[in-house]
Amino acid sequence: MTTMRLLLAHEAFVCFRGRWFFIALTIATGFGIAAAIESAHIAIVWHALDDFYRSNYLSFSNWMVVNCNARVLPSAFFRVIPLLASIPFAWSYHSERISGYEYQVAVRVPRFQRMLAKAAVTFASGFIVTASALLLNMLVLAAILPSAVPLYEEYNIIGVFTESLFSELFYRFPIVYVCVYTMLDSCLMGTWAVFVLGCSCILSNRVSVMVLPYLGLLGWQYLNTWLCLMFDISAPSFNLIDDMQGTFYFVKSELILVALQIALMLGFSVISCRLLSNRDVT
């Protein structure tokens, strides 16, 4: 346990003191602030034109996860955040092999424990980047717009339907809804960052590790939505991008499928960590 604590402390020091963590955090939080300003501006303009509906003028309804007024930046955020979540540390395995640092560490500490420590810190970095953006977005909105409880009768305007994930919390305890969805999205992106790290066992360099899984995720999300459009059905989603959002149009989140995706990514990551720890050091 002492060795594991030392490995965690070392990997955390390397990650959270590194420039890539601050770059990813700056971009993600900047996205959150810009999205909040965009959503608040539109909500204020529309409310001045027609104040019949109250809920689409509230901070909770304009939070990025809900995005009741369908703004561009909140939608773009969920397509960019998988890349931002993996930027801080998911590339570190290949970087250490290229620099020769891995050899220096491999002869001193258990390699599988080091990979587990690296995976834990990678998860934490993706979690922090995502949670920071979501919470900052909510704080900026709360400073500009009213923070009353949204009306269930206006669900067609908001887009959070009865079938939406955690919809009961949204219409009863919206603060709890924000906390729960922040935890869910941050865990999804933390797990995704670990999955990208695990792809180091099948991809040969830092660029491919960062780019190919991300492009694959975007392609899979498009295919998931396209199939529902093609067959004119509303089906459960099985992609991280749609699962991070509280509203749905064609594919809706199911908690059991979200948990299944997390389990599959973690299972792949554990196997990958074992394979990487057994790989010859060159």
Uncertain spans, ≥5 residues at pLDDT below 50? none
Strand content: under 5%
The topology string of helices and strands comes to: HHHHHHHHHHHEHEH
The percentage helix is over 70%
Largest sheet: 2 strands, parallel
Note the gap between the termini: 28 Å
Shape: globular
Number of continuous helical runs: 13
Let me know the number of strands: 2
Broad structural category: mainly alpha
Side by side, the strands of the main sheet go 1-2
Over all CA atoms, what is the radius of gyration? 20 Å
Mean pLDDT: 87
Walkthrough of the structure:
The protein has 13 helices and two strands; from the N terminus they run H-H-H-H-H-H-H-H-H-H-H-E-H-E-H. Helix 1 packs across helix 7, helix 4 packs antiparallel against helix 7 and helix 4 (72-86) crosses helix 10 (174-198). A two-stranded parallel sheet has the order 1-2. With 282 residues, it is an all-alpha fold. It has helices at 2-16, 19-49, 59-62, 72-86, 92-99, 101-106, 111-144, 155-158, 167-172, 174-198, 206-231, 240-243, 255-278; strands at residues 235-236, 251-252. It is globular, with a radius of gyration of 20 Å. Strand 1 (235-236), helix 12 and strand 2 form a beta-alpha-beta unit. The model has no long low-confidence stretch (mean pLDDT 87).
